[in-house]
């Protein structure tokens, strides 16, 4: 293809670039934008720190200007802490510690707000964000324990201290209403967190199974072609010896003993191949009745010897399926990658040698 025909890689649109910049900003501290539990926590930390800075800083400044000096400095301190935390997460990627920098100052600030009343006696309205953040960041078990401790602290502050409630002329039932509604929010956040983590666990398990299905052959439990290629590509820079084996006259096995007997034979052959491999060998079902073995160490003599061993073990094995006993044989082609023979070429070479083994009478190993 001439250079002029080559298509230039498409430049991402401004919209896509903006979206990706926002995502990177909110997922900072994680390797990739994904839906893993850790990535979700990091997203929550980043969102909370950013929202925290944008809300807390103006409120702190207003408090300072309206003479509420202690409250003002507390809020400014929290805003600065959250901003530093965002930078800390960006460089350390330690979301566990970063989560603690978010949640523990938050608990302290909330207790302080409930005790003092914050701005004009509205301090208590902020406590309802605590359960969701606590459960999100620390999970069900630790989150609930911390919320229980926080609720006890809340009860002590609201019912057993000389707090602001009396100052603002609130109805006497307000503290108990706050407490009950706070517990309802804990309950609802708990249900949400529980169902989210169950959903995540199931998703993880199903994704794991799907990945396995994508790379493993379900009949023989060996790698499938995709799984083998993936493993071979990882070892592309190394010398690899390849044994491509094909069952001889397998159509006859199916025709004579039935398709199920054929399946059984494939399973047994896979088992024999697998149990013949050295530690550094791996095998795949390459196609219908074709198997590919790869050796990432050893020399070509060892590869040839292994091919011969497998061939002999199959030849002498008595396949027995539902009272029917039969024999099968294998033809094998062996080839290796070298600095001048890349993987695809070595596979083609092994295939050509397998073809030669077939045409030289089958049940044999062809190495050149
Ligand atoms: N039972 C069973 N048979 C399969 C499976 N996959 C492929 N086959 C059969 O394998 C047979 C392969 O036949 P051919 O390609 O003609 O080769 P062959 O009979 O083995 O003959 P040669 O390779 O020339 O020695 C076909 O009959 C396929 O139906 C499978 O998963 N199970």
From TrEMBL:
Biological-process GO terms, alphabetical: cell adhesion involved in single-species biofilm formation; negative regulation of bacterial-type flagellum-dependent cell motility
SMART domains in UniProt: GGDEF (SM00267)
CDD domains: GGDEF
Residue ranges annotated for the GGDEF domain, each copy included: 238-368
GO-annotated cellular components: plasma membrane
Entry EC no(s): 2.7.7.65
Catalytic reactions of this protein: 2 GTP = 3',3'-c-di-GMP + 2 diphosphate
UniProt cross-references to Pfam families, sorted A to Z: GGDEF, MASE6
Chain segments annotated as transmembrane: 43-64, 70-89, 101-118, 124-140, 147-166, 178-196
InterPro entries: Diguanylate_Cyclase, GGDEF_dom, MASE6, Nucleotide_cyclase, Rev_trsase/Diguanyl_cyclase
Keywords assigned: Membrane, Transmembrane, Transmembrane helix
Top-rank taxon, per record: Bacteria
Cofactor(s) required for function per UniProt: Mg(2+)
Any one GO MF annotation of this record: diguanylate cyclase activity
PANTHER family, alphabetized: DIGUANYLATE CYCLASE DGCM-RELATED (PTHR45138:SF9), REGULATORY COMPONENTS OF SENSORY TRANSDUCTION SYSTEM (PTHR45138)
Name recorded for this polypeptide: diguanylate cyclase
């Amino acid at each position: 293809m001439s250079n002029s025909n080559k298509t230039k890689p498409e430049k991402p649109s401004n919209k896509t670039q903006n979206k990706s910049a926002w995502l990177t900003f909110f997922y900072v501290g994680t390797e990739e934008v994904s839906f893993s539990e850790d990535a979700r926590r990091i997203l929550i930390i980043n969102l909370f720190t950013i929202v925290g800075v944008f809300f807390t800083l103006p409120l702190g400044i207003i408090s300072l200007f309206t003479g509420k000096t202690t409250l003002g400095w507390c809020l400014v301190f929290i805003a600065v802490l959250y901003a530093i935390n965002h930078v800390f997460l960006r460089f350390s990627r330690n979301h566990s510690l970063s989560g603690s920098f978010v949640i523990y100052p938050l608990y302290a600030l909330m207790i302080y707000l409930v005790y003092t009343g914050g701005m004009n006696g509205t301090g208590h309205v902020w406590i309802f964000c605590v359960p969701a953040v606590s459960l999100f960041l620390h999970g069900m078990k630790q989150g609930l324990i911390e919320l229980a401790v926080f609720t006890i602290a809340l009860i002590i502050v609201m019912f057993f201290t000389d707090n602001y409630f009396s100052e603002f002329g609130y109805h006497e039932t307000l503290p108990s209403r706050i407490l009950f509604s706070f517990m309802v929010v804990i309950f609802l956040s708990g249900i949400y967190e529980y169902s989210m983590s169950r959903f995540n666990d199931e998703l993880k398990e199903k994704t794991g199974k799907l990945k396995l299905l994508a790379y493993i052959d379900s009949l023989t439990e060996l790698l499938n072609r995709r799984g083998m290629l993936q493993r071979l590509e990882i070892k592309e820079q190394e010398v690899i010896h390849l044994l491509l084996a094909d069952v001889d006259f397998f159509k006859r096995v199916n025709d004579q003993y039935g398709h199920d007997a054929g399946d059984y034979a494939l399973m047994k052959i896979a088992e024999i191949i697998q149990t013949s491999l050295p530690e550094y060998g791996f095998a795949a079902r390459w196609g219908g009745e074709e198997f590919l073995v790869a050796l990432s160490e050893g020399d070509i003599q060892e590869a040839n010897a292994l091919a011969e061993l497998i061939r002999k073990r199959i030849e002498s094995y008595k396949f027995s399926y539902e009272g029917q006993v039969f024999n099968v044989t294998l033809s094998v082609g062996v080839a290796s990658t070298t600095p001048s023979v890349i993987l695809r070429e070595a596979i083609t070479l092994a295939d050509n040698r397998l073809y030669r083994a077939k045409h030289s009478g089958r049940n044999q190993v062809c190495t050149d």
